[in-house]
Structures are given as C-alpha cells and as structure tokens.
Amino acid sequence: MYRPVRVPSTSRFLNPCVVCFIVVTVVVILAVTVALLVHFLSFDQKSYFYHSNFQIRNVNYSNQLTSPATQEYKILCGKIESVITESFRKSNLRNQFIRAYVARLRQEGSDVIADIVMKFRFTRSYRGATLKNRIEPILRQAVNNFGNLEVNPSPDLTSITVQDAANIFTSECGAGPDLMTLSEERIIGGTKAEEGDWPWQVSLQRNNMHVCGGSLIGSTWILTAAHCFRSSSNPRQWIVAFGLSTISPTMRIRVRRIVVHGNYDPSTRENDIALMQLERRVSFTRNIHTVCLPVATQNILPGSTAYVTGWGSQEYGGNTVTELEQVRVRILSNNVCNAPTSYNGAILPGMLCAGLPSGGADACQGDSGGPLVQEDSRRLWFVVGIVSWGFQCGLPDRPGVYTRVTTYRDWINQQTGI
Ligand code: 4AZ
Fold it and tell me: What's the gap in Å between 396 CA and the centre of ligand 1?
C-alpha cells in the first residue's frame, strides 16, 4: 500500500506564521509606544495664562479712556497688543505664543495702567519657572519698542489660572465666553444659547412670568424698553432674573427704581427706552456680567452683523419660550427701512432697523426690551439696540425695529452715571 513519506513537522516555534505574527506584534507595540511618547512630549500642549501690568507714564487717564467704546481706548490697546505680539512673533517663543490682550485700562495716580493677559501653549513637561524665565526677557524687549509710549522698563509677570483670567475680563464690560479664555472666535450657530453666551441678558418678570428682556449695563442697572412698563411701572411688582432659563433662573434680584424716558410716546413709539435700578449690586461671574454701551457718535453700519437674544415667541401670536434663544440679523439703514414698501416713514432717527432681506430672522413678542448686540474689532460686545416694535415677526420688508442706543447715550449717562 502506497503511503507518502511523512515530512517531520518543524518545531512549533519555528513556524514562519508564528514568527511573522511575533514580529508584527512587536513592531506594532513599539510604534504605538513611540507615537504616544512623541504625542505626550511634543503635541500634548496645555494653555498657560500670564498677567502683566504696564504702567504708562506719558498718557493721561482722561474721560476718553474710561470706556472701551472710544477710539482713544481702542487705539491705545491696539498699539500695546500689536507691539507685544510682534515681539513674541519674532522670538523663539513664536510657536508657543497665542495672544496678548489688554483686558483693562485703569488709573493709578497720574499714570495709566494696562492689565495685560497673555496666553501661551506649551507641552505639559514644561516647568512654570522655565516658562516665566523665557517670557520675561521678550516682554522687556517689547517695552523698548513702544516708541512714544513711556512704559516702565521691567513690567511684572505673574502666572495666573484660566479662572483668574476670566475674573479680570468679567470686571469689564462686553466679554463673551471666547474672549475670556482668549480662544478662537466663537461660531454662533443654531438658535439655542448656551450658558455664558450672552451674560448680560436678563428676564424682567411679574408674578414669576417673563414679560420683557433687558441688558445688564452696570452692577445695579438694567437697560430695557419703556413700553415694557405700560402695564405697571411699580418697581415692587417686578423681579430681574438671570441665567438661560426663565423658569429656573440662576439668580433673582428685586427692583429699587424704574426710570421710563420722560418723552416716551406710545403712538409713535419714540423714545422707547427705560432703566431699572436693582435693589442690590450684582457680583459679576463668568455667566453674569455687563455689556458695553456704545459712544453717542458711534456709527452703526448698514449691512453689519448683529445678534438679538431673548425668550420671545417663535411666531407672531405664539408663546414665549423658557430657554434663551439667539438670532443673527443685519443692520439696515433708516432710509431703506423707511421705503414705502417697508415702514414708509415711521422709522424716526432714534430707531434702528435690523433683519434679513427675505425675513425669517427677527425678534418677536416677549423679546421687547432685550439687547441687539454687535462685536467690535477687539471682540467686545456692545448693545446697539433695544427690541422695540415691528409689524408682526420675520416678514420680508418688515424688519425688527429697535431703539437706537447711541441716540440715548447721554440720557443713560445722566440717569445712571454710566
Ligand atoms: C412685540 O410685540 C414685538 N418683529 C416685538 C418685536 C417685534 C414685533 C413685535 C419685531 O413685543
């Protein structure tokens, strides 16, 4: 009987498949280890925040520097930021430097002090002291490049936490959530607002029911519309609620005084502006702080983007909502808004129109008194309009009509000192 010769099997350990498997496994383990090492040593970066005071000797702290809305304020901050940025961009920290921002200008004696927040990204393996030693000389070098600005030659430099940075920003007006961490520009999409997106927005309530919106403009002041008080201007009947939700607010404060514009005219809706003074001061947090007021001379450009926020209804005649919403609109010129096919002359100089040409994006009932805001080139938010009126909501050629805040800038200052 034929039987094939049996080839003795090779040892298990020398089986080419097993050898191949072992080699591949070892190579994969090595590659993963090297990749993880490289990742943690060079790519796993962490943000570090630093604070510095620049003492500027030859600039007087005039009225012009008390508000971030003035050209003088913007120019001075812009100059300081660009000199620091340039120094870091030319230095060996160019890849680690993210941003320098003047968070506050204040007065000390006859000097102006600029509080500067700087953000860096370093790998986690870096030690704090090493970072400071590398940043300090570049900052000193920046000081030498200020030209006509006399800045103290060795400004201090302190490592701060992201919370410390946020605290500096919340003490000033207009910081949105992205600016507070010197992060990328925020993409505002959808309609639902998130906690801290619009930290100045308040809900004005009677009997625990949302009636109107408003904006926090000072630690005891709310800006809103005069027509909100047609039902009652008794401060004891009102409560100001903070936070995203009107039914579970993060804070409620009683009202001391309501100041309705003396020349508010319900028939023309002219001077539709009012102020509420709170019973107590608000302590500012990341999610509750003020919006900036524009200067009276600020030009609100037709075509520019603005946002309106509130708990108003989503269609004319509908119910108000309980969670804060936001809508992007564009500013229209009063001329366009007064066209015969639009509001046909009803738009007075103290009013401002905003919407989209095809309609669809608009404030509606219950948004009244709330803010129409714009972001400036330094990413600070300004309240340029107060939701006032309109023909229904979201219709083409019937944009939302707002009280033009710049027109009433002096009136606001007379009433509040802000
Ligand atoms: C209102 O009745 C109202 N579309 C507010 C804003 C607009 C219309 C009506 C703007 O409170």
Answer: 14
